[in-house]
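EI: anyone free to look at a 209-residue chain?
SC: sure, send it
EI:
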Amino acid sequence: MDQEFASTLLENAVAQFAKLPGIGRKTALRLVLHMLKQAPNDVEAFGDAIVRLRREIRYCNVCHNISETDVCPICSNPARDPATVCVVENVKDVMSIENTNQHHGLYHVLGGLISPMDGIGPQDIEIDSLVERVASGTVKEVILALSATMEGDTTNFYIFRRLAPYPDVKVTMLARGVSVGNEIEYTDELTLGRSIMNRTLFSDTFAKQ
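SC: here you go
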């Protein structure tokens, strides 16, 4: 049975916190009561940060990473290697790989993986824009850094086929130090860093099957 609250304001706040992933109503209530103990200015700053995030955040026109400008700091950094593009599923994967300090190129955030069971096809993620970047002639290597899952492997293979018309572009993938079934964001930095350094040609995977 849902807990009843004497205050509608309290109930509404708990309902909003409970919408967050992994937050149940009991945890939401604890968070709301904690907020009530804070200084009004601190609570207002908290709320303003969330509102500004939603209103002002945008996505990089080049790689689709989150950004406060049209082109994100990574893509606009002249010290990064524009010839190497690391393809990841989401923004959290960019953060995970950046923490390894082993990738000095650019990124391409797909925004998902191909998953017919979930109704997600190639047209629903940023694959066409990746092909356009490769077609521009700047990219020399595409690193497929997707999770070692069925959806990740399906997406890897589809991208590999889409990039087949560009034989001068090397398509590599993370070494399988990342265990089958693991998602990138849950892989420790040392393992992920070694997987980037020891990446292999994607075409070599066919010879092992």
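EI: The first strand starts at residue 58 and ends at 59.
SC: 👍
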